[in-house]
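REQUEST ID: PR-0412
SUBMITTED BY: lab tech R.K.
PRIORITY: routine
TASK: structure prediction, single protein chain
INPUT:
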Amino acid sequence: MNKPVNLNKLGIWAPKDDASLQHEGRFAVVKEMLQRYRAFLLIVAMPTLLAALYFGLIASDQYESQADFVIRSSQEGRSAPTGLGQMLGLGSALSGVQNEAYGVADYLSSHDAVAALQKRLNLEAIFRRPGTDPISALGRNETTSEELLKYYRKQVSVHYEPTTGITELRVRAFRPEDAHAVASTLMQLGEQRVNDMNRRAYDASVASALRQFTDAQKEVTTTQIKLTSFRQSQGDIDPQESGAAQTKLVTELDGQVAAARAALATMRGTISSSSPQVVSQQQRLASLEAQLAAYRGRLSGNAGATAIRLGEFEKLRIQQKFAAERYQAAAALYEKAREDASRQQLFVARVVEANMPQQALYPKRLQIVATVALALLLVYAIGWLVVAGVREHSA
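STATUS: complete
OUTPUT:
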């Protein structure tokens, strides 16, 4: 009698026990749920899980150092102009300070500031500290200046608030000392930029007045040299006084000649013309007339006459006086330009010094993960509504 074939041993068929049936049922339920919620898992659950894993386990801590400063001028101490005063242009000084503040904020976010930080602190090394995750850190390979500037602007925030005039500086780095060093150096760079602006503005406003002052000073020196040379060549310190003395002497001689002529005429009327008294008086008159002619020739009768020398001297004195007046006016203008430029000088007033952070504030892990989850849920909900609307419309 033949024995029945055991199909279980042959592997063709075997009855399933209850445990196997329950396992297959659970697997089928899970498979059905995965198929049903596949879109939700792919759009919401998986990206949120990846974000949670990255920010919870991989993302490096980042520390933030903050510093605040304002840019002021010495004119800001005066009363602020009213609305009418601003309409009349009295608020130009304040607007100038605002423009400079915007300029400093723009500079601190520029490639010039990045180059200065790279030279002083090695900015690339700060943003590539060992142990930082590759996503947060600066690229490990050599970066171009444009790539470094782009990353720098992600880590450094410079914001100027026009209503308060405060410029807020925030720096994030992977080490507390790095954040503090970058923020402190940026404050120094900002002060240096303000000093450069002051120097350029001072030079621009004072340069013209200084040039006029220098020209007037040279003119005074030149006229003084000419006047001294004239005195040395003529051998006369003050030709004006010398001319006055000679004029007085000519006047006195003229009077003596007139008196001598009158005396001679009187003698001729009383005594003989050949008498010794008349001859002596004639000789005295001739001598006085010769002296008078000589002195008159010195005054105006030859090329080296006193009148010509006095005219040249007066011309030089007028030039000297004009140069002196021009020098005084140029000196006053130069001093006023310096005072005005000094009153318009800007300076950086530090409101909050760069702090040494004690606790990592970034990344905000829970906030980021929650934001990612909510955003993905919103996307999923919009997509679900669109698909449901299409299905309903096609049905």
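NOTES: The CA atoms of residues 138 and 251 lie 102 Å apart.
REVIEWED BY: pending
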